């Protein structure tokens, strides 16, 4: 199992409602439906991925996260998931603000740009890093923003976002010490604790 999906599976409670923003082919939602009996809905911009979601029986809407999410009521989902999608939107602060309004809890996952192998490539090769969690070259990457685990933690502190739990991975291995250096990916279970700023 994908280690990030395994962590998310542990965080999501049974029979809850879940909205996955940037759900891709619906693999995570299908897993949550099967293992946790959730009420699942996805939003995706890629049409080929949408076809795969539909083939897997996942309810999915074609929408741009930067311009959408206006028609959802406050706290209309128990969980909103932004896994591997927050770094791809034009305005991640605004999208995260919308997610925290719509969801009682929000799960955010992203590749850690300050992973030690990325730092080595930057320092010694002088090129934009290519790693398993950042597998694209500069000219074909879908990522618009490159953030670190520390960047996200500081952002949460400044923007009244309460981190309920976090997990960090390096491939299929959990990272406990110095995750900003040794983790390829970071995952955060969070919720709003006040007025949000985009």
How would you describe this structure to a colleague?
This protein is α/β, with parallel strands linked by helices and 198 residues long. It has one domain: Vaccinia Virus protein VP39 (Rossmann fold). The protein is built from 7 helices and 8 strands. Strands 3-2-1-4-5-8-6-7 form an 8-stranded mixed beta sheet, with helices on both faces. Helix 4 (92-102) links the parallel strand 4 and strand 5.
How is the topology of this model organized?
Layout: H1 3-11, E1 17-21, H2 27-36, E2 39-44, H3 47-55, E3 60-62, E4 77-83, H4 92-102, E5 103-111, H5 116-125, H6 149-158, E6 161-170, E7 173-174, H7 179-182, E8 185-192
Parallel strand pairs: 1-2, 1-4, 2-3, 4-5
Antiparallel strand pairs: 5-8, 6-7, 6-8
Strand pairing plus helix content: what structural class? alpha/beta
Number of DSSP helices? 7
CATH superfamily: Vaccinia Virus protein VP39
The proportion of residues forming helix, as a percent range, comes to 25-40%
In the sheet with the most strands, the strands line up as 3-2-1-4-5-8-6-7
Arithmetic mean of pLDDT: 90
Q: Report the CATH architecture.
A: 3-Layer(aba) Sandwich
Classified by CATH, the class is Alpha Beta
Distance from N terminus to C terminus (CA atoms, Å) equals 34 Å
Global morphology: globular
């Amino acid at each position: 199992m994908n280690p990030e999906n395994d962590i998310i599976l542990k965080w999501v409670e049974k029979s809850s409602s879940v909205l996955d923003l940037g759900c891709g082919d619906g693999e995570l939602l299908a897993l949550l439906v099967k293992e946790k009996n959730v009420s699942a809905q996805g939003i995706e911009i890629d049409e080929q991925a949408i076809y795969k979601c539909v083939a897997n029986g996942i309810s999915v809407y074609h929408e741009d996260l930067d311009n959408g999410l206006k028609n959802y009521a406050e706290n209309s989902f128990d969980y909103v998931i932004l896994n591997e999608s927050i770094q791809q939107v034009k305005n991640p602060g605004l999208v995260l603000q919308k997610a925290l309004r719509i969801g009682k809890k929000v799960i955010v996952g992203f590749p850690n740009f300050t992973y030690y192998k990325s730092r080595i490539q930057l320092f010694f090769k002088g090129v934009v890093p290519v790693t398993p969690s950042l597998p694209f070259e500069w000219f074909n990457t879908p990522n618009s923003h490159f953030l670190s685990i520390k960047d996200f933690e500081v952002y949460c502190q400044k923007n009244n976002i309460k981190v309920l739990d976090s997990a960090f991975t390096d491939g299929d291995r959990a990272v406990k010490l110095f995750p900003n250096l040794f983790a390829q990916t970071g995952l955060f279970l969070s919720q709003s604790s006040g007025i949000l700023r985009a």
